[in-house]
Amino acid sequence: MAVRTARVGLDAGDGPAKNVLVTTASGGVGTFAVQLASLAGHHHVTGTCGARNLDLIRGLDADEVLDYGTSEGIALRGPSGRKHDAVVHCAEGFPWSAFKPVLADKGGVVVDLTPRIASVAVAVLHWLCFSKKRLVPLILSPKKQDMDALMGLVVQGKIRTVVDSRYPLSRAHEGWAKSMSGHATGKIIVDMVKDAE
């Protein structure tokens, strides 16, 4: 589902995005979003992550990586000074005001993968006002043909799953705790087969 979420996030704009920003690029959805954006031929892919994951995100073909612990990362502005046509927002806690200045002057879209009530209200306001810079809450409805195409990319080795850790089913609660801590890099796997330590 993470790869499908990333794909829907990248497709939510009004046309092909040239410059894409992925927040929390080292997370389960973010790692796929960076790879898919790069694979789709976007001109410039920027990802944000913590300092320990900078090399990982560069290795997934991001053109620019921002450490979210620095002033540049917090402002979502890198040394290139690029503005973005699309933002795949995989984190919580960023208000709309953080994104508006980094969107392209001609307009852009922020796809919020973790929408809250306030995000939905902002999105409705943007829609009603025909705003060029918009916040769009993600609505996901998986489709078999899309999943098959994405799995084909995995099988062909064009995108890869970054795995943080694996847990047997009997320790699934530990995997859940790790996920909720917000410090996983990539996906957390829970093996549903007979427990084997």
Q: How does the overall form come out from the CA principal axes? A: globular
Q: How many separate helices? A: 8
Q: Terminal Cα separation, in Å?
A: 26 Å
Q: What is the H/E string?
A: HEHEHEHEHEHEHEHE
Mean pLDDT: 84
The CATH fourth-level homologous superfamily of the largest domain: NAD(P)-binding Rossmann-like Domain
Radius of gyration: 17 Å
Largest sheet, in brief, is: 6 strands, parallel
Which range best describes the helical content: under 10%, 10-25%, 25-40%, 40-55%, 55-70% or over 70%? 25-40%
**Strand-pairing-aware structural class:** alpha/beta
**What is the number of E strands?**
8
Supply the CATH architecture of the largest domain. 3-Layer(aba) Sandwich
Strands of the widest sheet, in order across it, are 3-2-1-4-5-6
Q: How many domains, as an integer?
A: 2
What is the level 1 CATH name of the largest domain?
Alpha Beta
Poorly predicted tracts of residues? none
What is the CATH fold-level name of the largest domain?
A: Rossmann fold
Query: What share of residues are in beta strands?
Result: 15-25%
Protein name: Enoyl reductase (ER) domain-containing protein
Organism: Lolium multiflorum (Italian ryegrass)
Pfam families: ADH_zinc_N_2
